[in-house]
Amino acid sequence: MKEGEAHVLSLDADHELEMPDPSGIPPLEAAEAASPRRMILNMGPQHPSTHGVLRVLVELDGETIVNARPEIGFLHTGIEKQCEDRKYQQVVPLTDRVDYLSNLANNFCYALAIEKLLDLEIPPLAQWMRVMLVELSRIASHLVWLGTHALDIGAMSVYFYCFREREEILKVFETFSGQRMMTSYIRPGGLALEPPRGWHKMVKVLADRLTRSTEEYADLLTTNPIWMNRTKGIGGLPVDLMIELGITGPMLRAAGIPTDVRKSCPHSSYEKFDFDVPTRTSNDVFGRYEIRLEEMRQSVRIVKQALEGMPGGPWQADAPHVVLPDREKMKTQMEALIYHFKIVTEGYRVPAGSTFAVVESPRGELGYYVVSDGTARPHRVYMRTPSFGNLQALGALLEGALIADSIAIMGSIDFVLGDVDR
Amino acid sequence: MLPESVAQDADALAIDEQLPNAIVEARVPHGEVELVIAPEHLAAACKLLKGRGYQQLSGVTGVDWWPRDPRFEVVYFLRSFRNNRRLRLIVRAAEDQEIDSVTSVWRGANWYEREVFDLFGVTFRNHPNLERIMMPADWEGFPLRKDYPVHGHKYSYGRE
């Protein structure tokens, strides 16, 4: 900074920061007419409300945002590059770390893609178990969202309630896989381990508890006047523009479009479950809150149906060249030992080709595009992550909003930076 | 001439009718339609498809087939909520070849194309802001290329 010049962040600064690209939306004309009231505010990359490392440059006119530019990449870990260096089964733990709040959805999507390439048939028990666990992880993810979103806006106690229940869900995951968060439980060919003894009772207790507690959160917030004042009527965008910018999931459903991969292209026995896709037409932060709350109720419904109708049978596909053999068989049977050795040392080859598997993650459409060249390592794994598309619209969502509302709007997108930057 | 595998596909037929010779190759792996489009027809084909209900571009990515020539495949994932359909468009590009940006068709293509530029070094003509998005602005090289090492780029953390 030169002498006599105002600091960039001071109100007197007459300097202009070039912002040619608020995610593809041309800047408003008002922003072009320079005014002494304008100032640039830098939020992040270390800002509590960004829930990760996101930097947002906002240009303010008084308290109104005239221009906002999100900058990403601070959490880029090159997961897609690392996938190319590993064998197919070694990629599974990497997928956990993409969206670290709904790991199972990522495991699930990757497994579906590989199973499509291998043309594997998955037994009903594994399919139902996957659905049940993915729905539980949807609830866990929405609980983190609800807790932190409410905390951002100022309702502190909701956070404690949400994390209390989330911990119970994580305990279930731990019982199943041995890990609270990085479960790697859903693998190509079925599940990683046999469902543990007593899981049925444990999940049943949890489902009953979640039915009650969801209403508790609703009691705390839905008719709370402060909550309504802070969230109603902000953060809207024309629906066409939302679609064009790449928004999927709850945000689109809050704008009245009933899009849900679970319904539109059912996979893994989803067609056998009875659930609704909630929609709202308010297209604001409150609408997104209502949608996610309703989704939690629907997920509990699916979990309860899974508990009632859980089929029996094997929990892994009959594919000895892909699925690791049972430990006991491995020690007593020659053939199983050979398969075990081959899978661990060389991995399994996947026929050349490409596929794009899509699931409905808590944040929207999650897709894995896997290209195989016929070897035991993927040639390319592309993750179409919902947060990336949703965050792209942040610039457009913030334009014209008040700076205080920007926190609520950002929270309503429910992005996970690991999911954005990969 | 339209390849036989997509001869019944309404979208492929529409492209073929309006832009003859645009479809170079077509595949239907695992029931998912994949059309390889000639680079010069990409923008026009995208515009046409958007009119046919593909309102969303749900992703763009690259695949590096080095040392094959042309080395890159740029893949576009199209999504239609109205018709509940997905379509993949593929454009083949050589290392120094520029591809038309589709940001004028879908504004959401902006970040996706920036990502492909950043990680593969494929340049897009008429893109409003073609800058690095994941890597730092002064980064050298394109990490997702096959001739870019997974470990040991520039810095070595192992024993010398």
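Chain A has a mean pLDDT of 86.
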